[in-house]
Amino acid sequence: MDKNRYFNELLFRMEQVFYHELSDCASWKTELVGVDFIQTQDIQGANEQEIIEACIERMKAAGLAEDIDYSIGGKGILLKLRIRGCPLMLKETLLRKSGIKPYNCPGTNMILDQLIEKLGYTTAYVADMAVDECAGQCNIKAAIYATPEKIGEISDWSREPDIPEKPAHRVPGGPTAHVDSFARDHLPPVEERPELLFERPEFHYPDRINCAAELLDRAVREGHADRPALHSSKNGRKYFLTYRELLERANRIAHVLQDDLGLVPGNRVMLPSANNPMMAACFLAVLKAGGVVVPAMQLLRARELRHIIEKARINFALCDVRLAKEMEAAAARSSGLQRTVYFNHGGRDSLEAMLEGKPVEFDNVDTAADDVALIAFTSGTTGEPKGAMHFHRDVMAMCDGWPRAVLKPRPEDIFCGTPSLAFTYGLAMMLCAPLRFGASSVLVEELTPEKLLHIIRDFRCTAVSSAPLFLRRMANVAAKHDLSSLRMAMSSGEALPEATRELFREATGLQIINGLGCTEMMQTFLSHTPERLRSGATGYAIPGHRVEVLDAAGEPCAPGVIGRLAVKGPTGCLYLADERQKTYVQRGWNVTGDAFSKDGEGYFFFHGRYDDLIVSAGYNIDGLEVESALLEHEAVAECAVVGLPDQERGSIVNAFVVLKAGYAAGEHMARTLQDFAKSAIAPYKYPRRVEFVASLPRTETGKLQRFKLRGLAPATSA
Length: 718
Fold this sequence. Notes:
Blueprint: H1 3-22, H2 48-61, E1 65-73, E2 76-83, H3 90-98, H4 113-118, E3 124-134, E4 137-146, H5 182-185, H6 211-224, E5 228-234, E6 237-242, H7 243-260, E7 268-272, H8 277-288, E8 292-296, H9 302-311, E9 316-320, H10 324-332, E10 339-343, H11 351-355, E11 372-377, E12 387-391, H12 392-400, H13 402-407, E13 414-417, H14 424-436, E14 440-442, H15 449-459, E15 463-466, H16 468-477, E16 488-491, H17 498-508, E17 513-518, E18 523-527, E19 540-541, E20 546-550, E21 563-568, H18 581-584, E22 585-586, E23 589-598, E24 604-609, E25 614-616, E26 619-621, H19 623-631, E27 636-646, E28 650-659, H20 667-680, E29 689-692, H21 706-709
Parallel strand pairs: 5-14, 7-8, 7-9, 9-10, 13-14, 13-15, 15-16, 16-17, 28-29
Antiparallel strand pairs: 1-2, 2-4, 3-4, 5-6, 11-12, 17-18, 18-19, 20-21, 21-23, 22-23, 23-24, 25-26, 27-28
Helix pairs in contact: 6-7, 6-8, 6-12, 7-8, 9-10, 12-14, 15-16, 16-17
């Protein structure tokens, strides 16, 4: 056995010790921090104390550790450390900040390089551990030591080390609670499903779990009953629902579903609505009753609603009354929909009226962890929306992944933002993640940048989520508003231009936390903390996920080479009866269709959709880079760049530009923007055609629809 494998195995075992000690700690709400291990050998003739002190000073100077203590005795060298940061990225941080040489041993952290130069390898152990919770964060304080006596035991590298086998990470699930088996029957065949990873303890769920009960009932049991869960406003007056009130409302709705509508576990219930407390309560109620939630945003029209009804074989609908016209038009042309009940009105047939007299307690259906909980339809960025099915355990993993690792929500946090509850980004940020961590969220409708800034001020919000374009518009008017309560801002949905990031930072003092996820994964799997920001990068892989950039043969690309982004994690693509499953899942990987490159330190860089890469005269051109350059011009409000066919060059770079008020479109402005782009990026990348448009085609969620731009006829060009 070689040294690399030995220490990779040792690293895994030590991580397991950390996780085992923390997995049952209720107060552990942050990502594990700590040193993986320290490799030392017998110090023959060296001044141990001098070496150790020199290493400690180096670590302090690099900002890598605090509260360091040590002792030297019969058991070897004992270091007591409290390390800040994510352990999975500690190696990259060390190499970048302190210049420590990796000694050609991937997967290990050569923390004490001065010792390594003199010594060699040995084993290391965790001596003790404690949770130190300060400022709402948990740090792991670990005593780690290496024993010289172990040298002889591992001098023969050809033998297997005395290390226990890696435990088999069981996939949570069991016998279904669904009486209506439609969802389970229409899962993709097993051979077309992605490989799932349950290596980390935060994703070790029991076989039986109802995610609504876990998010809401558990919060009430653990002492959050009288804390605000949801905030909103009506007729200009603010109000909130406590966790207890939300639970009671959800329980009453569950009784209506079960007792009055005749819902049986596994029935699909569509929820067309904007973001409001009643929509949130209905979502939780359907899950508690064992139903499958199929949310739909308020902007959908009858044709789109009908597609969802027929594709998901909807049984019932709980619908905002303001969408009644479109809903009734869709229902009239659909079969299978048994009944629609409307809410947010005071009529005798309203859902609110049906709640009167219903018990405030409900026996939650004992769903399996792998019972389908949600069918989330994609936004249609690349064509016809697809239905992505997700289990009860997936809803929990959505909360225990990115939010736990990067955002680290606190009970006092108040979330707000623009994402719709009908999409997984909004479901996580505006409802499920706040509930998971005892926090709260503000649900309001018809947001504008000005209105959202007022919401932040009036509700003293601490976290805001939106898409890059909306954040850019907020930044333009942020100076007029009190944002002193805000501590973090999150962007997702599409690429975040560096110009937008910088504009927002100048306006608010906050670095936007960028993230990439997808409806198919129900997860944000690439992101970064504000402290770990790297210019131009989307971020690094969230703990619990493996992310690669693959070439056309399915092999990992070298650093800096553009390829197809591929992901594995605790969730994955499970399309509802869709042939596109075979394209999305390849050899166990979820292949997202995004073009990315990765640097040598594990940061990922977005280059557009893989099909959107522009090849012009033999050059690979990243349209996003051109867009970022144009956005820095004072006249540009929005822009999008696509490749259009060209007989001579194969493709040419075409920029669609929305100008700010006060600027005139025309040949002169087109040439001005072309010259500006040439000065900012390599000249061969500049847009050879500039077309001015009043607006860019976007989905209801604000995502740019580039495929529609390719069909637009040239307007003004240069």
